[in-house]
């Protein structure tokens, strides 16, 4: 019988280690570093405005920035919802821990990597909110690392652990929700 956890967050703490899914840098710290870098570049180098100031009516600018705030908040919510859903299914979120169950419902029924999709939506939303290209530019290292290294590693690991379940899931669920 499995261990009873008082909180879903306890799952990762007690999950067995598995170095096959270990990554040099977990995506959340890279996500935060990209956001912080975009903010610093905007302040220290140059704003690189998406929309030049004073070229559009104030109401339009307020609407666009409001849309950016909504997108950023939706991204945070979607990432959190996906993370909490995995933990509630008693599967660890952190890299380097053995995955016991393939989670295919909730946010994972729409997209194979909803936490990363939420992080990207947050970055782009913050860029629109702050009216700067820097968020988009600084998302490039995140996209390259997560899309080019982390996601393929995770998918190979899951296919090795859950071969039939993974192939069925991957065949019907888009990687990023828009394929």
TrEMBL record:
Membrane topology of the entry: Multi-pass membrane protein
Keyword Transmembrane helix: yes
Superkingdom of the source species: Eukaryota
Localization (cell): Endomembrane system
Transmembrane segments annotated in the record for this chain: 30-48, 60-80
Principal subcellular localization: membrane
Record-level GO BP terms: phospholipid biosynthetic process
The entry's keywords: Lipid biosynthesis, Lipid metabolism, Membrane, Phospholipid biosynthesis, Phospholipid metabolism, Transmembrane, Transmembrane helix
A Pfam family annotated for this UniProt entry: PEMT
GO CC terms: endomembrane system
UniProt protein name: Protein-S-isoprenylcysteine O-methyltransferase
């Amino acid at each position: 019988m499995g261990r009873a956890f008082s909180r879903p967050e306890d799952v990762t703490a007690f999950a067995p280690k598995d170095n096959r899914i270990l990554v040099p840098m977990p995506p959340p710290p890279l996500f935060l570093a990209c956001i912080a870098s975009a903010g610093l570049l905007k302040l220290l180098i140059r704003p690189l405005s998406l929309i030049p100031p004073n070229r559009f009516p104030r109401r339009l600018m307020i609407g666009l920035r409001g849309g950016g705030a909504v997108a950023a908040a939706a991204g945070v919510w979607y990432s959190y919802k996906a993370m909490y859903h995995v933990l509630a299914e008693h599967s660890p979120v952190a890299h380097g821990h053995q995955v016991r169950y393939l989670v295919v419902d909730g946010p994972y029924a729409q997209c194979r990597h909803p936490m990363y999709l939420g992080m990207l939506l947050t970055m782009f939303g913050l860029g629109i909110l702050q009216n700067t290209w820097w968020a988009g530019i600084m998302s490039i290292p995140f996209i390259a690392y997560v899309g080019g290294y982390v996601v393929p590693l995770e998918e190979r690991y899951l296919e090795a652990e859950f071969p039939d379940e993974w192939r069925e899931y991957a065949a019907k669920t888009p990687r990023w929700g828009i394929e």
